[in-house]
Amino acid sequence: MTLAPRAVLVHRTTEYEELLARHGTHGQAAFFLSSRDRDIREVAERHHRTHRALIDVAAAVPHRWRQSRVERADLDRFLFGPEDVVVVVGQDGLVANAAKYLSGQPVVGIDTDPGCNPGVLVRHRAADTGKLLAEAVGGRVAADELTMVEAVADDSQRLLALNEICLGPAGHQTVRYRLSADARPASPAPEAQASSGVLVGTGTGATGWLRSLWQERASTLPLPAPADRRLLWFVREAWPSPTTGTSLVSGALTPTDRLRLTVESDRLIAFGDGMESDALTLTWGQTVHVGVSATRLRLLG
Fold first, then answer.
1. Using only C-alpha atoms, what is the Rg of the chain?
2. CA 158 from chain center: how many Å?
C-alpha cells in the first residue's frame, strides 16, 4: 500500500515565546524590553503573524495527507521520509537550517513576515500552500535545484549545508591544520596554516557570510549563482610564521574538486549555516574533504 504524502511543517520558536519562557509572563517580558527601549507590541505582533501563518498552512494541507510539525531545535532528531513535502514557515534562514537534513524532498518556503524578510528562500504566502502542495506531488511546479556543500571526514562523519560550511576552533582561538585543493593535477603541496578557520560557501550563501569575505578581500573570483555547481572558499585571518604560510587563502571548487584539511590542533569543528550545536568534531590527525555535494535542495519556485 502506497503511503499518503506527508506535509512536514518546519517552524521555529518566536522571540515572544522565548521571552515568555525566560520571564514567565507578558507583563514581566514587557518590563524587560521597555528597560531596553523596546516595545513588546512589535514582538507580539510578529509572533501572532507567525502563529496565524502556521494555522493557515496546517489548514491548507489536504485531508487525505498526513501531517507533522518539527521545531528548528529538533531537526537533527526528526526522520524525514521520501514521500514528504517540507513546508518551511518562517524566515529564509530556516530553509537553510532544514536543508541539511533532507535528501531531495521538495521544499516550500512560506514567508510569515512579508516585507521584513528578503524572501529569497521563503518565496510564498500561506494562502498559496494548498495549491503548492498539490503541484509538488503532481510534479506540475518548477523547482530550483540549489547547490549544497558537504564535508566528509575520514571517520565517515558527513555534514551538509546550503549556505556555507565553516571549519575552525570552537571559540575565538587559532586553529592549526594543513590545507590543499587536492583534486587538481597542478595543485600546490599542502600548506601548514594557523588561522581562525576556513569558510566554503555556495551561491545561496553568496548573499551572506561568503559575500562579506569576498568583499573584504576585494576578490576577483566571480560569485556563483545558487544553482551553479561551484563553490568559493576563503581562509579567515591566516597567520604567517616560520612554520605556517598564507599562500593558500582563497579559491573556487568545481564538482570534481575537494578542499582537503588535516587537523594539527587538539580540536576543530565543522558546522553548517551557523548551527554550531550540530557540528562535526575533528581531532589531531584527522582529515576532512569539503566540496560540492551530490545532494541538492529542491526549492519550489
1. 21
2. 14
The answer to whether 71 and 12 have CB atoms below 8 angstroms apart is yes
Amino acid at 158: R
CA distance 57 to 87: 8
What is the CA 16 to chain-centroid distance, rounded? 23
Of 159, 290, 301, 162, the C-alpha closest to 224 is: 162
Per-residue pLDDT band for 106 (boundaries 50, 70, 90) equals very high
- Rounded CA-CA distance 21/25 in Å is 8
**Residues in a beta bridge with 283:** 267
pLDDT tens-digit profile of 18-42? 999 999 999 999 999 999 999 999 9
Report which secondary-structure segment, H or E, holds 32. helix 26-34
Find out whether 133 and 60 touch, Cβ atoms under 8 Å.
Answer: yes
CA nearest 209: which of 238, 181, 229, 234? 234
Reported residue count of the chain is 301
